[in-house]
Design a protein that fits this description.
CATH superfamily of the largest domain in chain A: Tetracycline Repressor, domain 2
CATH class of the largest domain in chain A: Mainly Alpha
Largest interface: A-B, 49 and 49 residues
Oligomer: homodimer
Helix content of chain A: over 70%
Structural class of chain A: mainly alpha
Number of strands of chain A: 0
CATH architecture of the largest domain in chain A: Orthogonal Bundle
Strand content of chain A: under 5%
Number of domains of chain A: 2
CATH topology of the largest domain in chain A: Tetracycline Repressor, domain 2
Shape of chain A: elongated
Largest sheet of chain A: none
Number of helices of chain A: 8
Order of helices and strands of chain A: HHHHHHHH
Radius of gyration of chain A: 20 Å
DNA sequence: CCGAAAATCTGACGGCCAGTCAGAATCCGC
DNA sequence: GCGGATTCTGACTGGCCGTCAGATTTTCGG
């Protein structure tokens, strides 16, 4: 194993090529945000950085490969979030801690919204690679959440009809999806801070069993 | 307003044409399930029913229009679900009622999985029409959920830091998303019935405040 | 049952984008 | 400032999109 960066043909590449590759990734991310996956064209990505489609294919076998890499990068940004999910949330500080987690999660989501959307689509459509990346990202949070939930069940604050693993998945699901609704909810009177507070209250309740 | 069915050019169509149009919709749904939106080709849809692409464009301006119609049909199937969400869930029967709702929701979701996936993608990417359809579908459930949540807040069983509208959205979000994870969770030991029971317990807790 | 009008369907085409490849342009060590 | 290695691209093939003129099928009055 090596951390060298490769072109599509597998060759290790130098500094200039790395810069080009990075520019292509950034352009992909930008256009994904602006136009969505269904209108994303390799011609546009190349044009965005003033190069030709052939250059894109020099570094990636197809657009999916570039997006997959962006998804892996997003996972890196998700890792620090687990720091918010340590056992021992109490009746008094738990709600604040949940709020801190939600704040961090919202920032993360805002940064990678477009890429995560495609990651989830491809994962749900059965793409092996995107499934793997998504599962790994979700397990990051779910492992921590599971422990906290087990704690709550053990202490008798949570019903033991709750399966910790599934409950952890449900919490992640709720966060992910609710942030997807956010832009539309804003129009119906649910401000960002309302969403934040409600989500924090729910998470606090679900994983600790406190009220 | 009229309920007549139209071709892409707006003309009202007869029985034979209606049958063709229906076959095209069914083929679209089938291929969407099998191949996913990114590999969906009009050529394939036409070939599926033994006709030519030109026929497809006779009935729909583009593939989106066909999928949008499938999404509207899905909303119809969602309407009966609100019958499960009537106020008055009690400590004793609430969990069972939540379970019944989850069962119905899972069936609905399984039937329309592929179409709903695209509906949500397009909605999140900002498509006006898909947004409208999704919002209307979600509001169906959310209206009922809101009332139940308000009841719980009024009775002091739920903290009033919960915004009923946002909480209702969170419940819908959790259901939707968790079912999206389902196929992967199955591989990690979370069976369908575990998901059902956990989801029911969570919903029961969130919207009634009972334990 | 016939013929013409209406309804439905499609062959064939121009245009655009994906993806490839041979070779041009650039860089770097000596 | 030369030669080989690296990086980039013009130009091409093939496939799908979306259109339209006209072919085919159905309908219906007589």
């Amino acid at each position: 194993m090596s951390d060298d960066i490769h072109a599509a043909d597998g060759r290790v590449i130098g500094a200039r090529a790395q810069a080009t590759r990075r520019k292509l990734l950034d352009a992909t991310s930008k256009l994904l945000t602006e136009q969505g996956i269904l209108d994303l064209r390799v011609v546009d990505i190349s044009r965005e950085i003033g190069t030709s489609p052939a250059t894109f294919y020099h570094y990636f076998n197809d657009v999916d490969e570039a997006i997959l890499e962006l998804a892996v990068e997003a996972t890196e940004d998700e890792k620090p979030l687990v720091d918010h999910l340590t056992p021992g949330w109490t009746q008094t500080d738990g709600l604040k801690r949940a709020g801190d987690f939600v704040d961090a999660y919202m920032t993360f989501w805002d940064t990678h919204r477009a890429v995560l959307r495609v990651r989830n689509l491809k994962a749900e459509e059965g793409d092996r690679h995107f499934r793997k990346v998504r599962t790994e990202a979700n397990l990051l949070l779910m492992d921590s959440l599971q422990n906290m939930i087990r704690e709550g069940v053990a202490a008798g604050r949570l019903p033991n009809s709750l399966d910790p693993f599934t409950t952890a998945a449900a919490v992640v699901a709720m966060c992910e999806r609710l942030l997807g609704y956010q832009p539309e909810m804003a129009k119906r009177g649910s401000s960002k801070s309302t969403i934040r507070d409600t989500l924090a209250t729910l998470i606090f309740g679900i994983i600790t069993g406190h009220v």
